[in-house]
Amino acid sequence: MLDFLLPVWNTFLVHPLINLLILADYFVKDFGLAVVIVTVAIRLALFPVFRAQVRSSRAMQELAPAMNDIKKKFGNDRAKLQQEQMKLYQERGINPIGGCLPMLVFFPVLFAMYAAFQQVGGLSGTHALTVEQLRDMVLWPFLQFTVADMPPDAHIDLAAHWLPWVQNLAQPDHVITLPAIGGIGPLPIISALLQLVASIQALPRNPAQTDDPTQRTMQSMTYYLPLITIVFFKDLASGVFIYYITTTIFQIIQQYFVMGWGQLPRFIPPLANIPTPADKTMRARERAAIVEAEHDMEEPEAVAASGRGGNGGGGRRRGRRRKR
Fold first, then answer.
1. Contact 249/45 with Cβ under 8 angstroms?
2. If residue 97 lies in a helix (H) or strand (E), which one and from where to where?
3. Quick check: 69 pLDDT over 90?
4. How many structural domains is the chain composed of?
5. Does the model's pTM come out above 0.85?
C-alpha cells in the first residue's frame, strides 16, 4: 500500500474496526466472539447494500431466459443485441452492474480486518501493539475504559476460547499439515465449504440453456474459487476466517429469503421438497420476463407486417377508386 494512503486507511477503516473489536471483547471476554459480533453489526449496517446485491442477482437470473431469446434473435448484430439488452434492463428497472457494487464495500472491510489483526496481534506475535500503544495511537478517547484495568505493557488476549485450537486470532490456522498444501486448519476449510454453498445457492435453480462461453466459465468458477481460497489464502489470520465464515452464513440466510435454494437441491435432494419464500415470486417474475421479451421482439415484426398490408390495401383501394 502507498505510504501516503496509510494514515487514511488506518483512520477510516482499520482503527475503527480495532475499536469495535476491543469494545465487543470488553463485554464478551472472548476475541473470537467479538469478531462474530462486529461482523454481524457490519452486515446489519450494510444490509440495504447487500440486499440490493442479492435482489439484483435474482433479477438477472429471472431475465436469463429472456436474454437468451434476445441473443438467439440478434446474436449476429452486436449493436442491436446491446440495444435490446439495455432496453430490457431499463424496462425491468435493473442495473446490470448492481450486483458488483457491494464488493466495493466487502473487500475493503475484509482487508481492513486482516490489517486490524496484524496491528493488534502481529502476524509473528512479536510486533503486537501493547495496551499503552493502543491507548495512545488507536483507541478513541471514550473507549479508554476498555483497557483501563490492564497493565501498560500487556497485550490484548486474542484467543477464541470456544475454538480450543485457536490461541491467537492473529496467527494462521495451521492445525494439520498436508503434503501438497502445507499447514492448514478447520477454519479455512469451513470457509471454503460455506463459500461453495453460497455460490451454488446463488445459481438459478433451473438455468437457461446457453452457448455463451463467458457464462459457462462463470458457472465453472463457482466450483474452483473455494479451492483457490484454501490454497492461496490459508495463511491469513484465523480471525479473518471467522469474519468470512460469519458474513458467508449471513449471506446464505439472506439468499434463502430472496433467491431460495438455487442449485443446492442437485447436491442435497431433500431441499427440493422444502419451499422457500422466494420460489413463488421468482416463478412469476420469470414468466413475466419471458412474455415481455417475446412481446418486444414480435412487436416490430407486427408493425412492419401491418405497414406492408396497409400499403397494399391502400393501393387496392386506390385502384378500385380509379376504376369507378
1. no
2. none
3. no
4. 1
5. no
